[in-house]
Amino acid sequence: MGPGVHRAIGLAFLLLAAPSVGGCARVERARQCQELAEKVNPRLEEVGRLAAGSQVPAALRAIAGEYDAIADELGPLEFQSRALARAVKDYGLKLREIAAEARRAATARENEDRSQHSAARREVRQRAGQLEAAQRRLLAACQ
Predict the structure, then answer these.
(1) Which residues contact 22 (CB under 8 A, 6 or more apart)?
(2) For the whole prediction, is pTM greater than 0.85?
(3) Vertex 114: Cα angle to 112 and 119 (nearest 5)
(4) Which are the contacts of 140, defined by CB distance < 8 A and separation ≥ 6?
(5) Fewer CB within 10 Å, N side or C side of the chain?
């Protein structure tokens, strides 16, 4: 799990800004998307910082913790737009999945199980792609 995986994940959310709006529903969606970005961006920046360092088990667990924290913050949020609500829910699920794989990679590394570590890293890369797709859906719902 290299820093590029986390850097790519973080950059998409940095682009999240209030779209041009017209009408009450769009204004509210823009406000909700801005609130979402304010909750998510700082944590994704921390993931990027952690991923830029060594990939020791403690760093992998810290990354997993940040992903879980983002998902925790998203859980209680409510959205007027069904598309946005679905996109946020999907994004939270993808965050949980990648967090679980990062923990699995950390455990495998601690146990010096190269086979499991390699498998977990492959899963993290695959889940990172899924997470990026979920981010694109989320960004689209905010437009």
Answers:
(1) none
(2) no
(3) 130
(4) 87
(5) C
pLDDT in the model for residue 17 = 44
Q: How many residues does the chain have?
A: 143
What pLDDT digit, counting tens, does each position of 84-131 carry?
Answer: 999 999 999 999 999 999 999 999 999 998 898 888 888 888 888 898
Q: Are 51 and 9 in contact (CB under 8 A)?
A: no
Four-CA torsion 9, 143, 39, 51, nearest 10 degrees: 10
Q: What is the DSSP letter of 53?
A: S
* Element holding 94 (H helix, E strand): helix 82-110
Cβ atoms of 84 and 32 closer than 8 Å? yes
Question: 34 and 18 in contact (C-beta within 8 Å)?
Answer: yes
Map tokens 């290299």 to a residue: 2
For the CA atoms of 109, 103, 135, 87, the dihedral, rounded to the nearest 10 degrees, stands at: 160
